[in-house]
Amino acid sequence: MFLSTVSQRHPDEYIVMVMDQAGWHIAQELEVPKNMRLVLLPPYSPEINPAEHIWDALREDCIGNTVFANLEAADKALSKGLQSLESDHERMQSLTGFKWITSISLNTK
Questions:
Q1: N or C end of the chain: smaller count of CB under 10 Å?
Q2: Is 78 in contact with 59 (CB distance < 8 Å)?
Q3: Which of 34, 45, 28, 25 is nearest to 4 (CA)?
């Protein structure tokens, strides 16, 4: 469902989705949209996982040192932070544009 949602939100872009090797990321029934390529990270390598840098930014900008009244309030703050990052292409590039990612061949054949 997540891959489909990302694909639909960015229909005119080719997406390189970097993922760790959690069991649900490599499930046999995972459907990868045509405008997306999956790249699996080596096991136990959080330092090269771009998602870790996104979480750091969210903690720093949106949820760090915050006590939320309930789970809904925390979810709202995270959603707002993610939408802000999604619309700030320069910031996302600086957080996730590692050389090993930006040099990946996008040959879709």
A1: C
A2: no
A3: 34
- DSSP string for residues in 23-36: GGGS-TTPPPPTTE
Q: What is the pTM of this model?
A: 0.63
Chain length of the chain? 109
Q: Residue type at 99?
A: K
Do 2 and 25 touch, CB atoms closer than 8 A?
no
Please state the rounded mean pLDDT for residues 37-57.
87
| H or E element at residue 15 | strand 15-19
Q: Which residues contact 104 (CB under 8 A, 6 or more apart)?
A: 16, 37, 39
Three-state DSSP at 4 gives helix
Q: Where are the domains of the chain?
A: 2-102
